[in-house]
Every structure is written in C-alpha cells, then in structure tokens.
Amino acid sequence: MLPLATALCHRRIETEFKGWRLPPRRPALGVQMTGDRAFTLIPADAPLPAVGRQVFTTVHDNQAEICVLVLRGDAPVASRNAVIGQFDLTGLPPGPRGSARIEVTFQVDPNNVLSANATDLDAGRQEQWLRQGSMVARIAHSDGVTPA
C-alpha cells in the first residue's frame, strides 16, 4: 500500500458532474502521494476505455480522512503536474498509520471522459468524484480539460 498526501481538500464549489472530457491527446492521470510524489494510475498512451487502480494507506495515526488530488501530467514530482480536481474520503476509523486500505480508481471511457472514486476497503464506503457527488476543481479551460 502506498501513502496518499495528507492535505485536506476544501470544498468551494459543489456541482453535479458526469465527468471531465479530456483533450484528444490525453495526458497521464494520477494522484499526489506524500512527499510531493506523483503516482500514475492511467498512462497517457493507455488505450480507451482505460481503468487504473491502486491501494493506498494513511500516513498518520488516527487519520480520519484523506484528500485525493487528481493530477494531469507526466512529472514524477506532483507539484509539477496540474491539479484538475480533488475530493475527500472522510470518516476513516481510528487506527495506526498504514492500517487503512483505500483503493483509488480512475476510469476514462471511450469518449475520453474521466471519472474517479476512492473506496475504504475495510468499511466498504465509497466517495465518487465526477460521475456523482461534488468536487473542487482548479481548471484552466485552455488546457483542454472541460466538463462533459
């Protein structure tokens, strides 16, 4: 299991989304991990439809939530990639660091629309981003990422 970044997401905009339409030349898609590292879930050259998933864990004792930062780009350093969205998985049960198992899944459909979710594998709870629920996105529409 890999540790996710511990920054908390701050919800500023709450809107229903079907997904984000990616540019025709799709970038690599991943998440930010602790230590400003990026982890790629779907490489740029993956054929469509594409699914990428990885199990992550907490980095602090009794960590009650995680923030999933959705990244676009190929850099191994997370801050060198674009943050295209973020969402929280809250209500994690208390426990030592590394005990939670959080599966993050990205899907890009045949129309090049991205959706993501995070599932607490121990509790079975899930938070979806884009297809349902709310999100925060810092999007520069000039980069080719637009609402679907």
User: In terms of quaternary structure, what is this?
Assistant: single chain
CATH architecture term: Sandwich
User: Distance between termini?
Assistant: 32 Å
Number of strands: 11
The description of the largest β-sheet is: 7 strands, mixed
Describe the global form.
globular
Structural class: mainly beta
CATH class: Mainly Beta
| Overall helicity | under 10%
Tally the structural domains.
1
Q: Give the DSSP E fraction (strand runs of 2 or more residues).
A: 35-45%
Mean pLDDT: 76
**Structure annotation, total helices:** 0
| SSE arrangement, N to C | EEEEEEEEEEE
CATH topology: Substrate Binding Domain Of DNAk, Chain A, domain 1
Pfam families: HSP70
GO molecular function: ATP binding; ATP-dependent protein folding chaperone
InterPro entries: HSP70_peptide-bd_sf (IPR029047), Hsp_70_fam (IPR013126)
Keywords: ATP-binding, Nucleotide-binding
Task: Report what the structure shows.
- This protein is mainly β and 148 residues long.
- It has one domain (2-143): Substrate Binding Domain Of DNAk, Chain A, domain 1.
- Helix content is 0%, strand content 41%.
- It is built from no helices and eleven strands.
- Strands 1, 2, 5, 8, 9, 10 and 11 form a seven-stranded mixed beta sheet that branches. Strands 4-3-6-7 form a four-stranded antiparallel beta sheet, with no helix packed on it.
- Residues 6-15 and 131-148 have low confidence and may be disordered.
